[in-house]
Amino acid sequence: MSDITLIVGGARIPIRDLGEQKxxxxxxxxxxAYFSNGVFNNREFLLASHEYFDRHSKFQEHDAYFNNFIxxxxxxxxxxxxxxxxxIWLLALRVAWDWEKKMSxxxxxxxxxxxxxxxxxxxxxxxxxxxxxxxxxxxxxxIPNPKAPAELFVTLxxxxxxxxxxxxxxxVADFLEGYLRRYSGQIDLxxxxxxxxxxxxxxxxxxxxxxxLFRIYYVQSDIDAKLKKNDFASLLETExxxxxxxxxxxxxxxxxxxxxxxxxHILFISRKGGLTLNQIxxxxxxxxxxxxxxxTLQNILNxxxxxxxxxxxxxxxxSLTIVYGFRNFGAHEIENQPLIYENFEKIVEHVMNSLFxxxxxxxxxxx
Length: 367
Known about the structure:
By secondary structure, this protein is mainly alpha-helical. It has helices at residues 21-36, 42-55, 59-67, 70-78, 82-103, 110-122, 126-140, 149-154, 166-182, 189-197, 203-221, 231-255, 262-272, 279-291, 293-301, 315-328, 337-342, 344-364; strands spanning 3-8, 11-16.
């Protein structure tokens, strides 16, 4: 397929020639309606689109169709017109959904899901945005391509310059790299990408991690500290930490699949990593969290927790026990609100260190 150039309102707009005059004319009408007050008939556009899909079943042909919406989206997106930028992709999706319902066949919709999802994420509508981006990944799995833009997004891969949301991916990847630099192990961003973010058997876990990483990035960089000293901030931050702890649980579980609970997983990673957390020590930790979660967490954060044998914890043991506490008890013991929001950044760093340690000991060493 080649390009054709539309002249609309004095502007030259390149779009794909879809090989049929009828659908090409409808796209010309669409652009005229958006940019020079031309006439657009929604029903005629729908019928022409359906006729196009009737005769074009290849995913490349579907992509070419959806790519013709990009210049309109980009125009509104760059000027910050969220409503119109969103509506153009909803128009594209409604056309596709209507044809799929009528024909009981599938159209490859990775492009509209990707653009709508990425736009929502930049507008900080994270739940909707990541749902759409996840759907884009699922669409693209039918045509496996490790460089598909949605796949690049959810694996924080900004190495390909020709992607529309590269800037935010790089910002969040740099944010993650900050945690990696403060971690005292042998893992960097490149190793993390190759051993964890690209791990096919952990795709859903990776997706959850990236989703929560975006949330942390915006909580820490985009919300004034004065607005985070309240009960709701504590609830929000506890939920994020809890979700990250589940990511770590799944990372260990993949290598320790015969066990089902985090207690056993912590013992497993302790043995693999040469730590001292054993059955007795973890039993004590479990009882401490159960009896007084806030005080136990505070003691660990302040390096004041001592085991019954008189030994203290190493830094990574503190991190792993904090993960254990939040995963098993934290979601139910958040009444001491200031403890969470006053220590959120420190808690997140401990959780991140736990994740890096688990990846380093369970994935890098076996690579």
